Amino acid sequence: MRTSRLEAFCDGVFAIAATLLVLELRVPVDSPDLVASLIALWPAYAVYLVSFMTIGIIWVNHHTLLEHCKRVDRRFLYLNLLLLVTVGIVPFPTALVGTYIRSAQWAAAALVVYGVGALLIAIAFSGVFFYATQDGRLTDDATIARRVRAEGRLFPIGLGAYSLGIVLAFVSPIASLALYALTALFYALPLLPLSRDLARREEPLADEAADRAQRGRDRER
Amino acid sequence: MRTSRLEAFCDGVFAIAATLLVLELRVPVDSPDLVASLIALWPAYAVYLVSFMTIGIIWVNHHTLLEHCKRVDRRFLYLNLLLLVTVGIVPFPTALVGTYIRSAQWAAAALVVYGVGALLIAIAFSGVFFYATQDGRLTDDATIARRVRAEGRLFPIGLGAYSLGIVLAFVSPIASLALYALTALFYALPLLPLSRDLARREEPLADEAADRAQRGRDRER
Amino acid sequence: MRTSRLEAFCDGVFAIAATLLVLELRVPVDSPDLVASLIALWPAYAVYLVSFMTIGIIWVNHHTLLEHCKRVDRRFLYLNLLLLVTVGIVPFPTALVGTYIRSAQWAAAALVVYGVGALLIAIAFSGVFFYATQDGRLTDDATIARRVRAEGRLFPIGLGAYSLGIVLAFVSPIASLALYALTALFYALPLLPLSRDLARREEPLADEAADRAQRGRDRER
Amino acid sequence: MRTSRLEAFCDGVFAIAATLLVLELRVPVDSPDLVASLIALWPAYAVYLVSFMTIGIIWVNHHTLLEHCKRVDRRFLYLNLLLLVTVGIVPFPTALVGTYIRSAQWAAAALVVYGVGALLIAIAFSGVFFYATQDGRLTDDATIARRVRAEGRLFPIGLGAYSLGIVLAFVSPIASLALYALTALFYALPLLPLSRDLARREEPLADEAADRAQRGRDRER
After folding, report:
1. D200 CB near a chain A CB, below 8 Å?
2. CA-to-CA distance for B178 and B174, rounded, in angstroms?
3. pTM of the entire structure?
4. Does any CB of chain C come closer than 8 Å to the CB of residue B219?
5. Which residues of D14-38 are buried (b: 16+ CB within 10 A; e: fewer)?
6. Cα–Cα distance, C102 to C107 (Å, whole number)
7. What is the pLDDT of residues D78-114, one digit of tens each?
8. Which of A209, C86, D60, D77 could potentially form a cystine with C120 if both were Cys, beta carbons 3.0 to 4.6 Å apart?
């Protein structure tokens, strides 16, 4: 299977899930004070931002993974479908948190659901990742496979952070949301100016992999 | 017509229909017990999962079919448009089942509608499939056409399963939903570890077909 | 500008507008008789079908036009944007008709709005079409340009049909909707078995044009 | 990273954000006078048009920028993600203006929010633009980089116009909306007949850039 159509479908689901988030920002109706109502919506804006960035960063990482793959098989497609199911559901926990984060009674429940959603995404992404890189199943080159898998060491951090966020929800819902935001930033980190060195060291791998992926695609044609 | 733009449009409809499903998961408002309300939403989650997987698996099969086609004609486009109409409507029966599956009085009606929707998809997909493979109309190669058509023997199973699901709706709505879920899994089966043999036997065909399809596309350029 | 990215954006808008239509099919809530309520929704299903097919057929024709274009310029992009604005709004008149077609008092108004929307699409499409084919502006080949423009003779039929539909809305809203459906079918006609001759005569043009378009694209690279 | 997948994701977000706007056009329910209600919706139509055109024009400019880029790096991806966040939120201020523009008390607030949204888009786009063109970071060719950057002189106009729109909101909300519409038209200007000269002078650059971009892409393969 050509990876291009898989990418088109995944990009579609990622882009739609991210853009549907806006529908959860509901215009206040019959508000006696619109300005106050708009300001009171701040948790909805915050969780919109966190969810959009999370989906965007998953997209970047998903794209990077697919660039390393010279082919995909049917089992990969189904694991990937599970990932899409979990990404596609994001607008629901996002709306839940936007609605309940300021509720004294239910904020914890909302953030637990959000954290469980994030955890399911992380687990599904790990599944896709390890299936693709294990035993050089989808990437021929052993060197690349080893280096890509090395990046997999970052996954426990994500799984840990989301688990911690779930626990934190019971103590402080806002801190829990902040942790989800930080986790998204953490995965974006290699891009920030601070890590220029890291990026440079990473560049040749990416280029090399792109070259090989392209050659793989050419061959598969 | 290049198949690439057809794929882009179809992928768009598939991805959007799948992602819109989440809008039917409505955040409980003014709930006295949010946790209980969220748990009470389980049928909505279940049907979200079944519908998303069903659309995803149709996408995989649709993609496989198009890989075998070296060209598409206008009549194919219109049959395909009918398929998209039936896939695009999926969020409606999904919402219906999510809302009424626990209603003693109306669960059967909701699942009958769901089954009729699934049946229409199966019929439309069969139409597209048989039009494309009949008389080597869209695939030049007789061997491939014969082998692809052989896969068509699976269609009566889907048609039968959905019809059974409609009947079952009157007896047990939950069993009916479970049957729809199993049917989705059945079409995904060639991917599961159990059927490694089947997959292996299938692989060369897929590769061969991809080769020919590519050559077809090159020629058509 | 490469036509491929323009196609991706247009396909996106077409696919989303078509798929959003389903959101106007609202699940009946607190209905004393769900079956009766679902049957009473038939106008919503009918207009869903008409709108989906209309968008699908515009997509097919838009795609055919772009295959003939060897390049697009910025003015084309903006005319095309106007077309997308009119296609993107389709879910609104669709919902209007679905809601009001059985209202004795307001069905005419709803169908007038629907007809005006369809008319705006036809006008915008004509604008894109004549800009692209006039003076061989976007298609170099004079023969192709002449033959493509000859297809433009069909436009007055669409403009006339939609205008008639608007007038008919005052007499019989259902007949008006039927006319919109027939217009969609009319534009799909070259695909039906009856017109095999027409299709055959058309085929070589399409192939030739695709060849030239491809060569154009190659050159523009 | 290949720019093609970045384009697919961005096009997705742009197309969805533009098409979701229609969901804010709500069909009047239980209206005693449907015609009057539909006419009273005119601000919603106007702001739908302004927002759709604004997103469409950002899409055109974004596409032009990416054509000049021979590669994108991860930092570019994240700046671009910020742009997508701001574009994805457009349906919210659009709905706000559609709902409140005729409210004596809250129209100003609605248009301030709309202007702030537009300003954030303009700032994010400037960030993407200057990052991509600075120091020939993403475009190798110094001549092209200089000429592309020259277009950047237009940005202060957009930033100024949106800031003025925010101030104007307090005086006349309608004038403020008109200014946002004019700003969209201003960025579309190079396409209008008047500026044929400008377009002609621009053409060779675009072609040249496309050539180089293509060659860049070929090389990166």
Report:
1. no
2. 6
3. 0.83
4. no
5. bbbbbbbbbbbbebbeeeeebeebb
6. 6
7. 899 999 999 999 999 999 999 998 888 899 999 999 9
8. C86
